[in-house]
Amino acid sequence: MTETTRRDEIAAGLAEVEATIAQACRAAGRAREELTLVAVSKTYPASDVRLLAALGVRDVGENRDQEASVKARECADLDLTWHFVGQLQTNKARSVVGYADVVHSVDRPRLVSALSHEAVRAGREVTCLVQVALDDDPGRGGARPVEVAALADALAAADGLRFGGVMAVAPLGEEPGRAFARLWEIAQAVRADHPGADVISAGMSGDLSEAVANGATHLRVGTALLGRRKPFVR
Ligand SMILES: *Cc1c(COP(=O)(O)O)cnc(C)c1O
Predict the structure, then answer these.
(1) Is 188 exposed, middle or buried (0-12, 13-18, 19+ CB in 10 A)?
(2) Considering the entire predicted model, what is its pTM?
(3) Ligand 1 centroid vs 223 CA: distance in angstroms?
(4) Cα 125 to middle of ligand 1, angstroms
(5) Alanine racemase N-terminal domain: which residues (predicted)?
(6) Closest C-alpha residue for ligand 1 atom 13
């Protein structure tokens, strides 16, 4: 496929996503400026990130360090904001801190200390969100709601890190709006102790309207922008 065709394809995806966001904002009485669209580029090449950037997208998300670190390096000249949204092993903290501006997936104390250590070492400040499990499936990552306050306190106290707010993935088999309403409640409780932590990262291609309706500030959208990902073998 030629670059021109791919550019048109991505532009059409972006226009459709922006139309959905605009509609959801109207319905919820919110302003588009309250929302950050994070383009999740996992499995897609750096050339697609360039095309997104040329179309005005400034925030890019990735979920695997190995892929993300290479892509971020290839796109270093674009001055984008990189979001790490996947499950993170502590032994990847050094690498992730090298390029990520925001880590959405902090879900345990060990990760707080590892990220803090590496951020200090790199002389960087990394914004971190607590990922909340909205169901009881620990396999998908995320802290249980009762663990969120302690993780928030730990992030707020950690050198090199800034506590930014909360993130969640809507559980399978539940109406996403109901799940995102619980996330919103958790976010309000956290903000009582940490007023600056106003990020609510919720909503993907299939449920971004429900996320907007329930106070999301960051939408993580892959498929609707770049197309359906091919299944891959790790
Ligand atoms: C892949 C991914 C997304 C984007 O999902 P789409 O359904 O392709 O929009 C969002 N958040 C996380 C954590 C992801 O891993």
Answers:
(1) exposed
(2) 0.96
(3) 8
(4) 25
(5) 30-228
(6) 85
